[in-house]
Every structure is written in C-alpha cells, then in structure tokens.
Amino acid sequence: MGLSCPLFFNSYLTGLIEGNGSICVPKRERSEKGKLYYPLVQIVFPSKDFPLCQSIQKILGFGSISKKKQSAAYVLSINDYEGLVKICHRINGKLRGPKYDQFLLLINYLNKKAPEKNYELILPLNLCNISFNKDSWLTGFIEADGCFQIRASQTSKNPRISLSFELVQSRVTLYGKSTYALMKNISCFLEVNLNEIRSDRKHPQYRLRTSSLKTNLYIKDYLNQYPLCGTKFMDFKDWCKVLNFFKEGTHQENKTQIIEIKSQMNQKRTVYNWDHLQ
C-alpha cells in the first residue's frame, strides 16, 4: 500500500494538508484595483522531501511547485478551478480537524462558479470520525508534523537510553480555530497524554508523545500498515531497529549501535534512499 493506491493516497493527502497545508479562500473576488483573487490549496514540504512533493504533484496531475523564500522548503500550490475541484473530491469526507471549516468555504466558492464553468455542484460530506486505524490519514499528519526520537547519552555513568515518537501542533490554526479536539482524539487513539507546551510563546502548542514500549509499538504497527512516504519513512525504519532492541530487552548492550543509528537520523541524515516511492 502506498501513493499509487487511491484509497491510501486520498486519506494520506488529507492528513498532509491538515498537518502542513493551508486552504485559503478570498473574502472578496477582486481587490480595490480590480485584481482577481483566487482560492488556493498549499502543502509545504521540507527541502529534503522534494521527491515526495514531485510524486504527489504527478499523481494529482496539477499544481505548481515553488521554492519557499528564505526557507529550506518547497510549496505545492493548487489554484486553478479544475485542480481545486479534483482535490476537493479527493479529500471530501476525509478531513478530521478544524481546516474542515476552510474546506466548506472552498466548496461554497467552487459551487458558486460551477454553472459558468459547466461543473456539477460538490456536496460536502461530514467530518470523518472513523477510527484512525481504518485509513492512512494519520500517516499524512505524521509526515507533516511527527518526529521519531532516540535519546542516548555517552557521557553519564548511567547512560539513559529512551525511545519516543512526538507529534506537535499549534493550539489554534491561522484562522483562529482550536486544534484541541483533533489532538485529543489522536492522543486517545495512542493512549498517551496530551500536553500544552510553549504557553509563554506567541504560538503555543499541543504535544503528544509515546514513550512506553506499548505505545511505541502502536505507532510501529500503524505505520507498517499505512507506511510513510517521505524521509520520515527512513527515520521510522531506523527508529524501529532500536525499538526491536527494547522489545528484546537488549537495548543496554546495544548502546553503541543505538548511538550510531541516532547519529544518522532526522536532521543528521545525509544519505537518502527513495526506493519506497517506486
């Protein structure tokens, strides 16, 4: 199962948009100078995930890719009418979070234009409330905002080795909608606590973290069923090697190997293998 499977791709795409994308709908059609405003769907990818960005664009068959200014990121943008209609059909009924409100505004905009464009009206479906383990939505969301972590100290007399998965999200969207219900649902699914962090910052966040063998295995089982598609797939595979040491109870004796694995993950990764996208 992967991007070539429509059932997987559509839910994955929805999670990706809800995690690191935006749905922008203009409040008016023209500027004071008469310039037309258009709705826009965008997904942001870190530079290292450029092959994933290209693959998604190819599957969609529309959209443009641009380098984000002063940032190590690429942006996939969809703003033509046909492309927006097609993406709405792909994600309709699969959204789970507060970006659903923007999705409804987008459908309303497209439906107003439908007669002159000779398109059928889009009937918006409700928020998706099926269990997370029934589709790949959470994989897309993790692709956007998840992080696989290994902590291992080389210096202390009693080095602590730990393994965790972390998911962080701003408490409110750009449009002032709370993400609490969505993050709480994910934390309940993974049987972990949902915590408030960065409360003194401009953009406070929610964070959930797996740290026990049981909850880490939940993530492993889910992502083996609905695999990641970007560079996080490689981090996940390395993370699973360490998880197996914990499962076998051999993590202390494999400390040197664990430290070596950690040294080549996440921001420290320099070698990328994209065979999983084929």
TrEMBL record:
Domain Homing endonuclease LAGLIDADG: 13-107, 138-242
Database matches in InterPro entries: Homing_endonucl, LAGLIDADG_dom, LAGLIDADG_Endonuclease
GO CC aspect terms: mitochondrion
Protein origin, superkingdom: Eukaryota
Pfam families: LAGLIDADG_1
Gene Ontology molecular function, alphabetical: endonuclease activity
Keywords from the UniProt entry: Mitochondrion
Function: Mitochondrial DNA endonuclease involved in intron homing.
Protein name per UniProt: Uncharacterized protein cox1
Organism in which the protein naturally occurs: Pleurotus ostreatus
